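Journal club side-thread
Mid-discussion, someone asked how the predicted structure for our own chain would compare to the paper's figures. Pasting it here so we can look after the session.
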Amino acid sequence: MFSGDSIAGLGSTPAVDWTISDRPVDYPFALELMHRRAAGIRDNRSRELVWLLEHPPLYTGGTSAKDSDLVDASTFPIYRTGRGGQFTYHGPGQRVVYVMLDLRARDLDIRSFVTRLERWVIGALAEFNVTGETRRDRVGVWIKRASKDGPVEEKIAAIGLRVSRGVSTHGVSLNIDPDLSHYRGIVPCGIREYGVTSLADLGLPVTPYDADIALRKNFERTFGLAQRTEWSIVEAENERLSRLPSL
């Protein structure tokens, strides 16, 4: 799901900063840093950034979220956010990837960008011999597998975006080994007919480290080079930017 401006443009695309947080990151802090970094990218003060992290258990609702899809509002914190889409869950065992790219410089409109994000995740899943698929009427990456009641389709990766003045925020969440029961408090992405799955649910003992390697390898195949930056650098930038007026 996505929200934002239609954009197009030309330009060079130097290596993207690639940052991994090694401890859970509070959602409000992540949003603040993400939006400030995006503002820096728009103004040519900051490099593009892909930020891999994990959140404590929580629900987020996009611009299309319906109150009727919030089944249990008492279990986890709920954040209404400016990304496109409906309700989703974030928590331990899930790799959240915030993607702050200048789509103008990459000559990408939103639809093409979503297609590339899906291709990126599908490539990463293929590293574990998992076949990810897309659907025209359902954004995200889906797994088709057999069950006792016949073939089923379940979502393994969600996409929720906002594009403002040509720069993307929010991004992708990939289920590695989350507690899938936590999804019961919402109707994930507003889709009642299909469930959710994870690499662990598929019987694959994939670690976050393994997933991060697969994600970076296939990001570079899809979007271009990425260079690793340490969390301390990003944290220092947030401290510097925190002195600027709030957005």
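Post-session note: Helices lie at 27-42, 110-126, 208-222, 231-241.
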